[in-house]
Amino acid sequence: MLEDGRGRCLRCHVLQARDLAPRDISGTSDPFARVFWGSQSLETSTIKKTRFPHWDEVLELREMPGAPSPLRVELWDWDMVGKNDFLGMVEFSPKTLQQKPPNGWFRLLPFPRAEDDSGGSLGALRLKVRLTEDRVLPSPCYQPLVELLMESVLGPAEEDTASPLALLEEVTLGDCRQDLATKLVKLFLGRGLAARFLDCLTRREVARTVDPNTLFRSNSLASKSMEQFMKLVGMPYLHEVLKPVISRVFEEKKYMELDPSKMDLGRTRRISFKGTPSEEQMRETSLGLLTGYLGPIVDAIMGSVGRCPPAMRLAFKQLHRRVEEHFPQPEHQDVKYLAISGFLFLRFFAPAILTPKLFDLWDQHADPQTSRSLLLLAKAVQSIGNLGQQLGQGKELWMAPLHPFLLQSISRVRDFLDGLVDVDGDEGAAVPARVLVPPSAIVREGYLLKRKEEPAGLATRFAFKKRYVWLSGETLSFSKSPEWQTRHSIPVSHIRAVERVDEGAFQLPHVMQVVTQDGAGALHTTYLQCKNVNELNQWLSALRKASAPNPDKLAACHPGAFRSARWTCCLQAERSAAGCSRTHSAVTLGDWSDPLDPDAEAQTVYRQLLLGRDQLRLKLLEDSNMDTTLEADTGACPEVLARQRAAAARLLEVLADLDRAHEEFQQQERGKAALGPLGP
């Protein structure tokens, strides 16, 4: 949980439920979970016709400042007609959330009031809740730390080993690197320096690698950063390449198996009227189905050079150059290809095929049969990415029938990778990272309910009208239907805020507002209602991406509406009154709502450095007479050790300043608490 001026944010991972009460005539239910924390609530997706739903969804809720609130999770059976049926609930006190975050199975309980209890056995729900508290300071407090990190990637290559970034990597434990890598990528992406950052880490990783077979195989900061970078900037590309075939796999539900020990000969239709198919017939049928899916996947990947984001192509070009410089020997000519394919195929395409829901390629987890099919496809893509180095080896010799197809595909990989890194110069590094949406591309479209600012006398229920909405990098357009010729458009460059609207504003859920500014400087608000919370998050994400480069973003706005001569949120009587809630001007990079928030990212780096502060002091500062020992241990020359000591001293000075800033902030908070609500 991050705590700042906007309040606290809690992450609730709703995993699954079991033994739920049957509420439908079919003897099953259509369950969904609704999570409440403070004044906020979110819902999971609805799983149809099951008493054992598997959601595996993470919901993040924000609470306004004040006393901590309990967490309540309710399960409901969705009904198309009539009211939804209550299935049960669990509730956790603030003390439980802070001292022992829930993680496990919990028996569902009825509503506290007997008349709300639906009776009978209510089953159980499995949850995992993580509640961590941190305090994010104002931006100027983090500026010295951010500048040190930026200097690390802008300096000459010979200073890589003595930069603050190198010291940060050195004191970061393996289990913390994933989170740190995500925060660093986002921090440098927001500054337009992601390519420099990745190149800096790549140089260090390659320089300390002796055996090319181990290059980028560990969970180093370089490996994790490149992996997170691809996920942050490459999701639309991934969807364009993989989604058509992944959708086919889910929709067609074909049974495929090559492993004799796992074959179920009764699961497929009879090949002939002579009886159950033989193992050989099953293998041939499965091979045909697998290649029928793999062929379009491989063709889509090999033909995707022009669709790969320029930032990714530039990062791969730098990686290609660094590896080729370090391993120029003829026997290592494939290392430069393996370095790129190891990331693109093994850490991007293959995981997305294996778990499509985690990459938003499908809205539910796969059933066991489909999951096995996806596993076989992912294994094949991994083999292609490995350039066939391990074909015919290991325990999976049953994959041999697929080898001719794999070898044919592997022969195309090198040409594909050569085209991928054939990008002009380094001009891509200068492109502002926040221009995340191509101007002419349609980012999102679909039906929404739209309401413009109306005179106070207009009845609210008639104000929302169904409109088809298009969002591109240039305009937000509306019309009565997709085929309607007349469109009304708002220039994306005029957008100053994109925010949620409180349900109480119109007595409607899933409403957002788009605040724009015209040429005369006047602000206008357009309200849009979505069908559900998932659609709301996706539209918020897309609109914030498209409007990311806009200047003069609003620092605050009203989460309510101006009705009956006052704002429903703060009760101010002036329509032009200043906003009462801070805006979320951060860019959302992924459909899982991953924002660029430089202050929160810098705070994470600060916390990581705190964990390694004693190590920095002990290793580089406490005893300057240890130079000889350090030189013998690390092979570093005295000049490098001196630069490392200077970098560590600067880092420790910045940490001390941040310590003081946090202490001052805490004192201010204690002072406000002592004054109470009646204080000035």
Automatic annotation (TrEMBL):
The keyword Transport does not apply. Keywords: Calcium, GTPase activation, Metal-binding, Repeat, Zinc, Zinc-finger. One of its GO terms (cellular component) is plasma membrane. InterPro entries: C2_dom, C2_domain_sf, PH-like_dom_sf, PH_domain, Ras_GTPase, RASAL_RasGAP, RasGAP_CS, RasGAP_dom. Residues 441-548 form the PH domain. SMART domains: BTK, C2, PH, RasGAP. The keyword Zinc applies. SUPFAM superfamilies: C2 domain (Calcium/lipid-binding domain, CaLB), GTPase activation domain, GAP, PH domain-like. Residues 176-386 form the Ras-GAP domain. It holds the Pfam family RasGAP. Residues 1-106 form the C2 domain. It comes from the Eukaryota. GO terms for biological process: cellular response to calcium ion; intracellular signal transduction; negative regulation of Ras protein signal transduction; positive regulation of dendrite extension. One of its GO terms (molecular function) is zinc ion binding. This is RAS protein activator like 1.
